[in-house]
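RETRY 2/3 - previous attempt timed out on the joint model. Re-submitting the same 856-residue input unchanged.
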Amino acid sequence: MTTREDCARRDRGDPLAALREQFVMPDGVIYLDGNSLGPLPGTAAARVQQVVRDEWGVGLIGSWNTAGWIDLPQRVGDKIARLVGAGAGELLVADSTSVNLYKVLCAALELARTDAPARNVILSERHNFPTDVYIAESVARERGLELRLVDAGELAARLDGSVAVLLLTHVNYRDGRMHSMPELNRAAHAAGALAVWDLAHSAGAVPIDLSGGGLAGAAADFAVGCGYKYLNGGPGAPAFVWAHPARTARMDALSLGQPLSGWLGHAAPFDFAPEYRPASGVARFACGTPPIVSLAALECGVDTVLAAQTLGGMPALREKSLALTDLCIELVDARCGGMGLALRTPRDPALRGSQVSYSREEGAYAIMQALISRGVIGDFRAPDVLRFGFAPLYTRHVDVWDAVEHLRQVLENGEWRESRFGQRSAVT
Amino acid sequence: MTTREDCARRDRGDPLAALREQFVMPDGVIYLDGNSLGPLPGTAAARVQQVVRDEWGVGLIGSWNTAGWIDLPQRVGDKIARLVGAGAGELLVADSTSVNLYKVLCAALELARTDAPARNVILSERHNFPTDVYIAESVARERGLELRLVDAGELAARLDGSVAVLLLTHVNYRDGRMHSMPELNRAAHAAGALAVWDLAHSAGAVPIDLSGGGLAGAAADFAVGCGYKYLNGGPGAPAFVWAHPARTARMDALSLGQPLSGWLGHAAPFDFAPEYRPASGVARFACGTPPIVSLAALECGVDTVLAAQTLGGMPALREKSLALTDLCIELVDARCGGMGLALRTPRDPALRGSQVSYSREEGAYAIMQALISRGVIGDFRAPDVLRFGFAPLYTRHVDVWDAVEHLRQVLENGEWRESRFGQRSAVT
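RETRY 2/3 succeeded.
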């Protein structure tokens, strides 16, 4: 069985180990919740101070030009693009994941139904993240369309000629199951549908090939993603939106915008023209003025992931991520057997994101609280899931070993039954 | 004629003068662009550092509870509510002004047309801020409704039985003209329509009585507003959304949400329920996760306006604002006569917001650039408008005098004709 010393040896041999030093990590914490909120990059505090004191305080309104605020959504977007297999100018930082999802889902439907008006179905997964389902529900209701929710295994079979758009989250927030994006893009396109992806739990954690330039060669159509999880952009960091250049070219040709036609998505926002004329390319997905202070912090977070580019980039991060999640599964199997934990995450690495989840019939919430009180920060997801995120940028093999040991102790000694762990908090 | 010494004397007698000390203001700057971006509150840098270093860096994900991040949109919303005549729990910070406008316009239309399905018109003003017109265009097109754009003077006459929603900006961004909100609310309601207001250029600058509790006693129905202008919330600060409690009660009764049905507007977001169920009250207008760092800075900005509450509050700020804009008009009349400036802002104080605008046939852009190079920061608005914002929190009477003197010199000596002032920049 793998020992703690084995883990320490793996850390010593880890070519990515130094990347952890980019972060401020509190003492005594094993942070396995970077898939909810990435930790603080060491550069962020100074950069945010610069934005506040110098750019806002001294540069005032002029900083939109002189400090480049106006270019920030595209500049940070271009950086994120490099992490998700997209080209420069194709990806923009804007709004929240939910708001961006609304924009691209509406745009995808309008495109798909311009070419095939009879297609009236949005196909998605029953266990997709709720916000994705809520937004799709809303868009479907507004347009009199059908939202067809099916189990993951049924997706390919239900991609029939009625489907206009396939809407999926790449890695499931609860169980960490990852879809094969190239396969589903191919299946969607073969069925005549467009593929829209939510990358909240995958951008910065697993290799993604949005443009289809890689070996699998199957491009997506639209995507959105989150800035504050594996991109380490800070609480509520702005999100991003990507559109395949062939889709935006077609939107250009048809003069299509998207419903959230705010002034910053206009072709010439500072002309203050009375009619809306969408900007070309992904710029049409901008809406209102972006929150610059939070956006500056996001750039620091994205830079922490880009720092891996010279060390093998996303494939190297993926290799480490799988080593960490494999290790977690192996150690829980070996050390927490018979303790009521049921693995929810696929054992097949090809189907796994960068997290490991367990369900437990009794006490899942309290067990996570007991772990947190020991400094092992994962999270609980209703109704019964213990979720552990293993961000390869800063998680060590010994962290996995120690976390599993704490989990074993909490289960064995029953401390989670203490009343102080029994209250469910507002945010978990 | 008013002398500079008269102005200095007025400043010495100004009961609000000390409020200026709340801000960090660069030396040598006369800042007359707080209606584009308010200046930096002295508290903001430290507060943002606290959020970044302590709450994010140390508290990590737990700060959603322990640092109260989850309550921040409502907490700051309650503070803004006090500035715009709204009740606690009625106003929420969220997203951008444009995105919020989309939400409330859709909600208002759904409410109005549930009761009167034949009403098919959104009535607005031709010279409304472009983003308002663009969003209304989009919403109208999606629903097959008519967007009826008329001149300000025609609004009351065009409020007929076909109008579902009257959508207006309280103070015009270009000429500073202010609508009478109580009168137009009454007219809208008399015509059976709902009234939706954009408070971008009025919140924090002029008294507003959204709930109709004041003497005029005419409530609005929905409103949105901007955090980074007179509320001094920082570049791209999150915006706000307000709904009259009677409107949200009716939405509750009809189980109506709004189209941007993101998870944070759900009645129980952390249940991760598969069906969307809107939160009650204004909370249904939340969508995705808010940008906490920018939101924390916004709270500092709002606090600078609340600091006036013990000194007479919004009425006292309004009195000073009118004294400043009156002074500007008087001094330009007296000192810049025959120099080609045409006053665009109403001379009647009742029709004026907190800015003064002039148009000039030739050179408006270059004239503003020449002023900025002298440290007098106003802004240019296409095609020919020089705009000067007079935020009563930090603008002094001597600032007005000095600004007009600079304007006079620039016009008299023709320095604006120098080629360095001739290029129009991306953001103005």
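The domain at 68-306 of chain B is CATH 3.40.640.10 (Aspartate Aminotransferase; domain 2). Closing ticket.
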